[in-house]
Design brief:
The structure holds 2 protein chains of 2 kinds. Helices cover 30% and strands 23% of the residues of chain A. Chain A contains 11 helices and 12 strands. Chain A has helices at residues 50-57, 85-91, 103-106, 113-124, 131-144, 150-153, 163-176, 193-210, 221-225, 245-250, 255-263; strands at 8-19, 22-34, 39-43, 66-75, 78-79, 96-99, 181-185, 213-218, 230-235, 238-244, 311-314, 317-319. An 8-stranded mixed sheet of chain A has the order 6-7-8-3-9-10-12-11, with helices on both faces. Chain A has a 4-stranded antiparallel sheet with strand order 2-1-4-5, with helices on one face. The two termini of chain A are 31 Å apart. Chain B is α/β, with parallel strands linked by helices. Chain B has one domain (4-329): 3-Layer(aba) Sandwich (Rossmann fold), CATH 3.40.50.300. The relative contact order of chain B is 0.14. The chains are: A alpha/beta, B alpha/beta. The A-B interface holds A 45-46, 159-160, 162, 164-165, 192-198, 201, 219-223, 225-226, 249, 259-261, 263-277, 279 and B 20-21, 51-52, 156, 158, 186-192, 194-195, 213-217, 219-221, 243, 253-254, 257-262, 264-265, 268-269, 274-276, 278-279. The structure holds adenosine-5'-diphosphate (2 copies), iron/sulfur cluster and magnesium ion (2 copies). The site of one magnesium ion (MG) has 3 residues of chain A, from helix 1. Residues 15, 17, 30, 32, 50, 52-58, 282 of chain B line the site of one adenosine-5'-diphosphate.
Chain lengths: 333, 330
Amino acid sequence: MVNKAPLLEIKNLRVHYKVYGGVLKVLDGVNLTVYPGEKVGLVGETGCGKTTTMKTALAILPVPPGVVVGGEILYKGRNLLAMSPRQLSNVRGREMTMIFQDPMAALNPVFNVEQQFTPVLKHAAKNHLSNKEIHAQAVLALQDVALADPERLLQAYPIQLSGGMRQRVCIGMALATRPQLLIADEPGTALDVTIQAQVLRLLNNLVDRLNTSIILITHSLGVVYETVDRLYVMYAGNIVEVAPTRKLFSNPLHPYSQGLMDAVPKLSGGGISQGISGRIPDYSHPPAGCRFHTRCSHVMEICRHQKPPEFEVEEGHKVACYLYGPKNQEAAV
Amino acid sequence: MSEAILEVRDLKKHFVVDHIGTFRRQPVTVRAVDGISFDLQAGETLGLVGESGSGKSTIAYILAGMYRPTQGRIHFRGLDLFSENGKRPLFLKKEIQIVFQDPGSSLNPRRTIAQNLAVPLQIHKPDKNIMRETLRLLELVDLPAIYMYKYPNMLSGGEKQIVAIARALATDPSFMILDEPTSALDVSVQGKVINLLMRLQSDLDLTYLFITHDLSLMRNIATRVAIMYLGKICEISKGSEFFQNPQHPYTQMLLSSIPVVSKDEEKLKPAKMIPTGEIPSPVNIPPGCSFNTRCPKKMDVCFEIDPDFVEISRQHFARCHLFGQTQKQG
Ligand SMILES: Nc1ncnc2c1ncn2[C@@H]1O[C@H](COP(=O)(O)OP(=O)(O)O)[C@@H](O)[C@H]1O
Ligand SMILES: Nc1ncnc2c1ncn2[C@@H]1O[C@H](COP(=O)(O)OP(=O)(O)O)[C@@H](O)[C@H]1O
Ligand code: SF4
Ligand SMILES: [Mg+2]
Ligand SMILES: [Mg+2]
């Protein structure tokens, strides 16, 4: 993996929202890399900037109010932020696709399932598809997501499907074009536990089979524990830690990651931890230095003034916290 | 064993609605709650778990007096909650309070926290000093007195929920229905609310019906657990026993679907039971056992006869043909 060239590289991405009464300085230098065939997770509390990061990567950030203030998004080495709309449409929807939390929002209620597939498949094939070919590909896509009786299903309207079926139709559409990268923003969060487990298992098997890279965004640590290879933890518009998934769970280093892991109720019992005191900062006046310093129980003088860089503690395990800086290594436990 | 303060017997709530999505507009019956019996002991936390649409909130709203049951009896400390002549007396309203999932919904956004807390105080404690009572409530939930003057939109989601809890406590209830009180909160703030609820329970001798879809959370707080599926309870038992020895196939499927975060927890999950199928609509509940469309252990009888709720070991009940027909509860 280390030798391969990255598929997607988000570098020092800074995004603001200009809103009535001020500027929300949301993304504060996000770095995130995905290699071919890799499964990457992105976790963090609601409002930390996960969706903003991914919308920017897909060039679907609403502008205004969004503004990309700095950084680069390299897809196979080419900067997406500098592409023409035409170049972009060659990538988005063909090589890079997405699924969202609410499948209903992605489906048009007045079209049946086949009509939903048509533009997606046409776009991917640059319009060189007959109606017959579209039909055949849509049937295949529904079989991919284990939906029974695809012929009948293609004639159904979204409202006639259950939540789990809709999400599977969306997964089928997102993978029908055989993309190289799938961005899944909280898939299944709106569904029930057993149905969510079904959807995630299916998604997992499919990306394995097709060797698609995936970025799985979620606020649920349990969901990523069982699925992704590497995990990024985000807090208030910054990546605070990244490591191979099992390593991050067994040895979280950043005080925020530690608090988050600790706060998850465990099936093994032992009570519920108090969690992390305080709340996510106001993005119009984010704290100087480390954005977590207002909630951190280890805060030091430097944290209040200077943004911590990423320290690579072990190969592939990076953490943005002064506790792991060269000066502090002896002091830290 | 302590006394039962609440007895629910064969409770049903059916809604008649216009069906959308079909060509003919024709009224259909939603069997939201479809024959439920359980007891609550004083001082316990009964966890009510089930996927969305299984009827949990409907039970909560009936207990809180917001809906009348279609059928069945509910006794609270021996008193019939739904006597013939309608309105619930004030002294019963005072005893039973509810906290909702959305903390915003029980607070008026245009009123300060003090004004919000004053509403139940004026109704239930007209002769008390409202200001002093408000301060007492804030202290009870560990919020600084200055919060009196804040408006709901100045508070975080967790703080709003804490105010909603204070508001529910204004009447000095003995029984609280908690309908997914932390489901809308981030996991990092959930702990504070949960620990507050646990402390209040022991300080004030409260009995809780705690509704959630999070089994890992339930594991840490419930003395007994009841699992719902399509308007019926399919299993109920002591918390410890429930997690060590789940019996109903649906419970096993639910437990094996929980996303966990450590190897220790993985070991606690029952043998991997791969979830399949879709949850049927409560408008169209399958005949026989309602779980028969998804059950890996289904037998012929499951398509014909709805199983009874039977006691399979002491205080452990399940509704499944795998467990024969021994004594029925209640
Ligand atoms: N369209 C928008 N207009 C203004 N602010 C926005 C918009 N979208 C997101 N934000 C702000 O950006 C922050 C991060 O949002 P988001 O990226 O959706 O976070 P997440 O997906 O992690 O929950 C939010 O706190 C919100 O204030
Ligand atoms: N007022 C109502 N009118 C019609 N149907 C309802 C009403 N309230 C709930 N239902 C239906 O009853 C079922 C159970 O709902 P609910 O008790 O809210 O479930 P839960 O809280 O477990 O998610 C659902 O199918 C829901 O759509
Ligand atoms: S850098 Fe400082 S404030 Fe930030 S998490 Fe580390 S110790 Fe806490
Ligand atoms: Mg989001
Ligand atoms: Mg509910």
